[in-house]
Design a protein that fits this description.
mainly alpha, 3 domains, five-stranded mixed β-sheet, two-stranded antiparallel sheet, 7 strands, 54% helix, globular
């Protein structure tokens, strides 16, 4: 088996990207439409995308009918390329976007191997297999976020700039590198430009060639990047989004860097989370000769690398170390911010693993097999250790797949590193199938607000005025199909309840229970856990409207009535109701009001600009 797998590895290395693409497709394609969109990023980004394609908000993003400063537009432009296939903003489109971003990430990693590390195709294949066996990376290829695209663009920028630093002058390469950094910045934020800048400065300083950064071609490239970014900001400013521009510079840049209101973590945060994010490859530490780190000869070799012909390796280490220190110095710390470090890490890990002595590779295989064995033994008891009022499905199937992986890794523990790496890649591809097709979809009832959002949409369609109290903005919007009023003002909700003939309210259970002056006309018709807390849906009407009995309830939820909302005619619906998702003339084009006048037939309810501050963190 070892000879066959080793030869197969060498054959696949002739075109590493083709095999890696096939493996990624097998890991993702069957799960594209297997589950709902989850709280909180997926459902919010889905509604932002709806505003892009339906309200034509292409330049400045909108969420729930109001400007959304947390994210630039490039990721949502990228998703529009999938519309000819999926025909609309469906969950499958967003999952395909995640998988395609994963392919771009792997492609960028292979390019980094070829043009920077230059260690051969086997290392490229090995790095791709390391990514496709890294649990955290696999998870991101099944979750709709822009981080994989963001990191891919940063990696491409690094490649161009490294090639430029090898030349005395390279206007085309520096321009391409900085323009890619600008596009990365317009994908997620200013770190898209900071990462390549920092890596370049540290690398050139280490090599004793810092003056290379201050030449004309760099000024041209950097100027082009600033021109692109300034063009987007100017277009937003002159397009009437001045408050949004101020928000970007203060909240999204300054506050995140030095004074985060959410996700603030100590300096050592990533020292704890990076090992978890790299599993199972963290176990490689037990196989590496770490004692060398305390030897003088090792550090003498490191210093000698400044002048030796090892620029590619040095550049990758600079990417990792400078990026890690940069992220650790920021006030906001989230594990997904580490993704730009994964391409160089994957290459360094691949090169180290493929050159391991047999006994050390065996040690890694035993530890990894032990992890799968632990999952196999503990996972069947998973339903005893969560707080949700649901039964997670497929745990036995995932446990069985884990046991299979553990057994194969044990019996194949003496495989050579190339054969071991290929075997692990195939095993993980099998292992993810029950996880993605059975277990994760069963979590919809606890991770997605779909059930409550769709029920709210049914009530809105029947003439109920929607309002939500202290929620993450946009939690209900995608699945209810309407922009809704989001507020922290309970007296406003009390007045609306008194004045509106029909009202539907989304609110956390803890706020519902502690509401001192809660109107008696409100009654709970649905309760559901969303991640770590229960939410209730309450209505006020004349008592004739009922709720379908299919609602998933949390413990102690109020009894569910047994019929659908009563039919109402358009003339009886509140005039303030928005009847459809935003179009070019929707609420997104109307300034948000501090408080919507009730009963005014010309008024469309707008989300309050300050709504949800207490519960809405700075965007990840």
């Amino acid at each position: 088996m070892d000879k066959f797998m080793s030869r197969l590895f060498k054959v696949l290395a002739f075109a590493p990207l083709l095999f890696l693409m096939a493996l990624l497709v097998l890991q993702t394609v069957f799960a594209l439409d297997s589950r709902a969109l989850w709280f909180s990023d997926e459902i919010r980004y889905a509604n932002v995308f709806e505003h892009v394609i339906q309200a034509k908000k292409w330049l400045v993003m909108y969420l729930n009918g109001v400007p959304y400063p947390d994210k630039p537009p490039v990721y949502f432009w990228f998703l529009t390329t999938l519309l000819p296939i999926f025909k609309g903003p469906t969950p499958a489109l967003f999952m395909a976007g995640a998988a395609l971003s994963g392919l771009m990430f792997i492609t960028a990693t292979c390019a980094l191997s070829r043009f920077v590390l230059r260690a051969g195709r086997e290392v490229s294949l090995g790095a791709g297999l390391i990514l496709l066996t890294c649990f955290y990376f696999i998870g991101l290829t099944h979750y709709s976020r822009m981080d994989l695209l963001f990191a891919s663009l940063i990696t491409a920028s690094h490649i161009c700039l490294f090639l430029a630093w090898e030349r005395d002058r390279a206007t085309g390469l520096t321009s391409a590198g900085f323009l890619l950094a600008a596009v990365a910045t317009l994908t997620k934020g200013p770190l898209g430009l900071v990462f390549p800048l920092l890596t370049s400065l540290v690398f050139l300083a280490w090599r004793g060639n810092l003056k290379r950064f201050f030449r004309r071609d760099v000024a041209i490239g950097f100027g082009l990047a600033l021109l692109v970014l300034a063009g987007w900001i100017a277009a937003a400013w002159f397009g009437g989004e001045r408050d949004l521009v101020n928000n970007i510079f203060y909240k999204q840049i300054y506050r995140r860097a030095v004074d985060a209101s959410h996700h603030e973590q100590p300096f050592w945060h990533y020292f704890a989370t990076l090992p978890a994010a790299l599993l199972p490859w963290t176990f490689l530490l037990v196989a590496l000769p770490l004692k060398r780190l305390v030897s003088g000869s090792f550090w003498a070799g490191v210093m000698a690398s400044r002048k030796e012909d090892s620029a590619g390796s040095v550049f990758l280490w600079v990417q990792v170390l400078s990026g890690f220190l940069l992220l650790s110095s920021l006030s906001t710390k989230i594990i997904v911010y580490l993704m730009p470090l994964f391409p160089p890490l994957a290459l360094l890990i691949a090169r180290a693993f493929l050159n391991l002595e047999q006994d050390k590779a065996t040690r890694f295989m035993i530890w990894t097999g032990g992890l799968f064995a632990f999952v196999a033994v503990t996972l069947p008891f998973g339903n005893f250790f969560h707080q949700w009022p649901i039964s997670i499905e497929g745990l036995w199937w995932v446990a069985l797949a884990s046991a299979l992986a553990a057994a194969v890794l044990w019996f194949g523990r003496r495989l050579s590193p190339p054969a071991a790496l290929l075997t692990l890649g195939l095993l993980v591809t099998i292992w993810v199938q029950p996880l993605m097709l059975i277990t994760l979809p069963s979590l919809d009832r606890a991770m997605s607000p779909k059930a409550q959002g769709e029920l709210m949409g049914e009530y809105i369609d029947q003439g109920y005025t929607p309002v939500a109290y202290k929620i993450y903005s946009g939690v209900y919007t995608y699945y209810c199909g309407h922009n809704i009023l989001e507020t922290q003002d309970l007296p406003l909700i009390e007045r609306m309840t008194a004045e509106e003939p029909k009202l539907v309210l989304g609110i956390q259970r803890k706020y519902w229970d502690s509401w001192e002056n809660r109107p008696k006309s409100l009654r709970v018709v649905h309760e559901q856990w969303v991640v770590d807390r229960p939410y209730v849906l309450a209505i006020k009407d004349d008592g004739t409207a009922m709720t379908p009995p299919t609602s998933m309830t949390a413990p102690n939820a109020e009894e569910q009535p047994e019929s659908m909302p009563a039919e109402t005619t358009e003339s009886t619906a509140p005039a303030s109701l928005e009847q459809a998702m935003p179009v070019a003339t929707s609420t997104a084009d109307t300034p948000a009001m501090t408080e919507p006048p009730l009963g005014d037939e010309t008024t469309i309810p707008q989300p309050l600009p300050e709504a949800g501050k207490a519960e809405q963190p700075t965007e990840q």
